[in-house]
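Fill in residues.
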């Protein structure tokens, strides 16, 4: 399970052994709620692990609104999918080296891959937030010197939106130009 704070790019990745809704809810509670500021809402994909039990646990017990992303907006889940792609690449590199022979060895290899991906991905996505780490943004403290720091969220939001706009312009520039004009069609006699 991959959990991301979109404002700070803070990432947590934990394996789901059973893939049930209650296990997913416990992972969110133990991994995120116990360590980081409580989110106002949680956006999930439509996977089976995010069923009604998951929603009930987060909404009723923790007061977090749960919303699902739609198939009409695949970009809404793009950061998670990119991280999952990185996890797959890391698994393909590490698994032959480690050569796990038992279930416990396999779990150890998977945990190593998840830890590697979790620490590699925030470094690659820090362009919109400047030189600040996700942890520094989440806790408003310098993570090395342990001193308070001030961040201007409006500047970060503006920078992130500017980066999104530049990426969209670059993607749209590759499209074929087409001007849909109405034409007068004559009638045949």
């Amino acid at each position: 399970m991959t959990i991301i704070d979109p404002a700070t790019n803070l990432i947590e990745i934990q394996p789901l052994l059973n893939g049930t809704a209650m296990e997913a809810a416990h992972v969110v509670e133990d991994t995120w709620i116990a360590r980081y500021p409580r989110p106002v809402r949680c956006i999930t994909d439509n996977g089976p692990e995010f069923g009604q039990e998951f929603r009930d646990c987060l909404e009723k017990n923790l007061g977090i609104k749960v919303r699902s992303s739609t198939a009409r907006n695949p970009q809404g889940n793009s950061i998670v999918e990119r991280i999952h792609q990185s996890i797959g690449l890391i698994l393909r590199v590490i698994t032959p080296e480690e050569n796990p022979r038992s279930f416990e060895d396999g779990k150890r290899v998977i945990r190593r891959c998840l830890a590697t991906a979790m620490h590699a991905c925030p470094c690659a996505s820090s362009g919109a937030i400047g030189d600040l780490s996700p942890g520094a943004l989440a806790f408003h403290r310098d993570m090395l010197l342990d001193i308070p720091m001030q961040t201007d969220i409006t500047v970060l939001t503006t920078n992130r939106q500017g980066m999104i706009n530049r990426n969209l312009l670059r993607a749209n520039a590759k499209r074929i130009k087409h001007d849909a004009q109405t034409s007068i069609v004559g009638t045949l006699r």
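The chain is about 50% helix and 10% strand.
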